[in-house]
Design brief:
This protein is an alpha+beta fold and 262 residues long. It contains seven helices and eleven strands. Strands 1, 2, 3, 4, 5, 6, 7, 8, 9, 10 and 11 form an eleven-stranded antiparallel β-sheet that branches. It is globular and about 50 Å long. The N and C termini lie far apart (42 Å).
Length: 262
C-alpha cells in the first residue's frame, strides 16, 4: 500500500468548504485564464512563508482518519491520529533554527557549502508544487466567478493535454491522469478549493504490483483575518488493487479549533 499512499499524497499536494456557501457572481469581466494561472504560480513560491506564519500565530487541532473498507463498503479497520499546534513551541524551534543559520552565515563558507544553501536549504520542495512544468501538462478553462466564504473566487476547470506527456516517475503517472476544478481566490491568488479525480486507471508495473481505478479528492482552504491561508479539510477516496488484494480507502483530514495566539 506504500506506493499508493506516496503517489496519491504527491498528487493531492499539487493543489492543497465543508460548510461554505457558494454563489455565482458574474458582475465583473473575467480576466484571461493565462493571467490567473501565472498569478497562482507566482503566489505558490511564498507558500512556505504562509505556512510558517500560520503555525507561528495560531493554535489548532488536526485530526486524520484513514479507513480501510471491504468490497461491500463495510469498514475493516481504521487509523486515527490527532495533533495540536502550539505557537510557543514553534517560535522556540524557529528561533533555534535561525540562530544556527546565522552561525553558518557568520563563518566563511566553502564553495560546496554555499551551493548547498542555494540549491537545497534555501528552498522547500513544496514551494514548487505549482510550477510551469506541472501546468504545461493541463488545459485550463476559466468557467466563471463564485463567492466562497464571502470572497470572490475564479473557477477553473482543468484536464490533461492530449498526447503523450512526460512520465519520469509514478507521481507523474498520476498527475497526467488528473482532472477537475479549482477555485482560486481572486484577490490573493490562493487556492480556496479543489476537486479532482482520475480520468483513467493507473497501473504499476503493467498491473502486476497494483492498480488504482478510482480516486477522488476534495480540498477546502480558508483565510484568517490577517491574510493567512490554511487547509480546513482534505478528503479522498481510493479504489484499487495491491497485488491480489482489493483496496478501498477513505481519508479525512480536518483542522479545527483555530485560535490566534498573541
Amino acid at each position: 500500500m506504500k506506493w499508493i499512499s506516496l503517489a496519491l499524497g504527491a498528487m493531492v499536494g499539487l493543489l492543497g468548504s465543508a460548510s461554505a456557501r457558494c454563489e455565482t457572481n458574474t458582475q465583473a469581466p473575467l480576466p484571461p485564464v493565462e493571467q490567473v494561472i501565472q498569478r497562482a504560480i507566482d503566489k505558490a513560491q511564498t507558500e512556505s512563508d504562509n505556512d510558517l506564519n500560520f503555525n507561528l500565530r495560531y493554535a489548532y487541532k488536526r485530526t486524520k482518519v484513514k479507513a480501510f473498507l471491504n468490497g461491500d463498503g463495510t469498514v475493516s479497520s481504521s487509523e486515527t491520529s490527532c495533533s495540536t499546534n502550539n505557537p510557543v513551541r514553534v517560535r522556540a524551534r524557529q528561533a533555534a533554527r535561525e540562530a544556527a543559520a546565522q552561525a553558518v552565515v557568520d563563518k566563511e563558507p566553502k564553495a560546496q557549502d554555499a551551493k548547498s544553501v542555494v540549491h537545497g536549504k534555501a528552498f522547500h520542495k513544496k514551494d514548487f508544487l505549482m510550477n510551469q512544468d506541472l501546468l504545461n501538462r493541463f488545459n485550463f478553462v476559466l468557467v466563471g466567478r463564485q463567492t466562497l466564504n464571502g470572497r470572490d473566487t475564479l473557477v477553473i476547470d482543468f484536464k490533461p493535454k492530449p498526447g503523450k506527456l512526460p512520465e519520469r516517475n509514478l507521481k507523474e503517472r498520476f498527475i497526467n491522469r488528473a482532472a477537475g476544478r479549482v477555485w482560486l481566490d481572486e484577490q490573493d491568488a490562493q487556492l480556496a478549493r479543489a476537486d479532482l479525480h482520475l480520468t483513467e486507471k493507473v497501473d504499476v508495473l503493467a498491473g502486476l504490483v497494483g492498480s488504482v481505478w478510482k480516486f477522488t479528492c476534495s480540498i477546502n482552504r480558508e483565510r484568517t483575518d490577517d491574510g493567512l491561508w490554511f487547509t480546513r479539510t482534505s478528503n479522498w477516496h481510493l479504489e484499487g488493487r495491491e497485488v491480489m488484494i482489493h483496496r478501498i480507502v477513505d481519508y479525512h483530514d480536518k483542522t479545527e479549533d483555530v485560535v490566534r495566539i498573541p
